[in-house]
Amino acid sequence: MQTIGLFGGTFDPVHYGHLRTALELRYRLALDEVRFLPCAIPPHRDMPTASAAIRLRMLRAAVDSEPGFLVDERELERAGPSYSVDTLLSLRADYPQASLCLLLGMDAFLGLPTWRAWRELLRLGHIVVAHRPGSRMPADGELGELLHRCGTRTSTELKRSLAGRVHVQEVTQLEISSTELRASIRAGMPASYLVPAAVCNIIMETGCYAA
Questions:
Q1: Which fold has domain 3-174?
Q2: According to the model, what pLDDT value does residue 137 have?
Q3: Which three-class secondary structure string do you get for the chain?
Q4: Which residues, 6+ apart, have CB-to-CB distance to 71 below 8 Å?
Q5: CA dist 2 to 85, 99, 101, 159, 161, Å?
Q6: What does the pLDDT look like over 140-181, one tens digit per residue?
């Protein structure tokens, strides 16, 4: 069974924090590929600063040389807010026999009950939560109940079914904030060593985060 990781976000800009997390999840979970899904209209945050075209260009430049990393444009091509449930419905139609793994950071997972039709996500795919060693997962409430009912300690469970499981995976999380990165660039600080060189060149060329 093909196993596909789905990594969504504004990627405004994409940085090494995103890329390292995706890389570790791909290898540790033996994912066949990771699809980066830049959103058009984020439902839970402000609109991106850079245009969709520039964010897409930066993302392609960032993942171009990494085998198994792909950019999926379906959220940019779809009108309206980029709801994850709509994206998973679309992907499930395209890949009816694949294991689809929605890759989330801890902050996104903790906010899951505010997402549109969030309980439908596990009918369409699995949820993988990337977190740093030592952080605590919810023990009660809706998310605690979800972990108790659907949680799995072994990543092999993600390959045995198309959907329905929640797996928590420790990763090396680099503390890079896109918001702080944009502010630093506006203040005249180069983005070197926080984003790939190709992305840094696009930021400089376009002036997309200039004051």
A1: Rossmann fold (3.40.50)
A2: 83
A3: CCEEEEEEECCCCCCHHHHHHHHHHHHHCCCCEEEEEECCCCCCCCCCCCCHHHHHHHHHHHHCCCCCEEECCHHHHCCCCCCHHHHHHHHHHHCCCCEEEEEEEHHHHHCHHHCCCHHHHHHHCEEEEEECCCCCCCCCHHHHHHHHHHEECCCCHHHHCCCCCEEEEECCCCCCCHHHHHHHHHCCCCCECCECHHHHHHHHHHCCCCC
A4: 35, 36, 38, 56, 59, 60, 63
A5: 20, 6, 11, 8, 11
A6: 999 999 999 999 989 999 999 999 999 999 999 898 999 999
Looking at the whole model, is its pTM more than 0.85? yes
Q: Which residue has the tokens 């590929």?
A: 33
